[in-house]
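During the reporting period the student researcher (J.K.) took over the structure-prediction task from the postdoctoral fellow and processed the backlog of single-chain submissions. One of the processed entries is reproduced below for the supervisory committee.
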Amino acid sequence: MKKIFTLLLFVGMTTYSFSQDIKYGVHFATNVSNMDYETDGIRPNPHRNGFVFGAFVDYGFTETLAVMTELQYSPEGANLQYYKTDYLNLPVILNYNIFGGFKVGVGPQVGLKIHKENDGFKNFVFSGVGFAEYMITDEIGVDFRYLYGISNVFDDDMNLEARQGVMQFGFTYRL
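J.K. obtained the following structure tokens:
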């Protein structure tokens, strides 16, 4: 009986895993980034604009539920010389297709700071992501994301504490 149950479980899991809808694509967006300070931070705190690009994989579990993971380059921080940071981000977004081509989702994101060393910023930051996407066709979509920093972006030895706030307006193309 145990062998039959194990065989049925294995066949069921294999069939389910091969029936998943997996889509690949690219994402291009523009950022509007700013820092949110706990206490007195930089008095003039202008937002920073930049271009985001990345590639994603969308794993469809059902027709309405999917997990999307992406690797993207994102310029963030404030628009002051010493507060500009660039990240290689990895969001993992659980998304739900509400109707037609409209999806909403949430998830965590980890960011790796790139191109600068010993600048007072942490090398890894964590954020939460809110996501909305509308698929115009089966391949082309527009999306909006809001990322809010969970961790402090500054090193522990600095007297500043700030979190990133980033809005992304973008386009996706599924291959």
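The committee noted the following: The chain has one helix and eight strands.
J.K. will present the remaining backlog at the next meeting.
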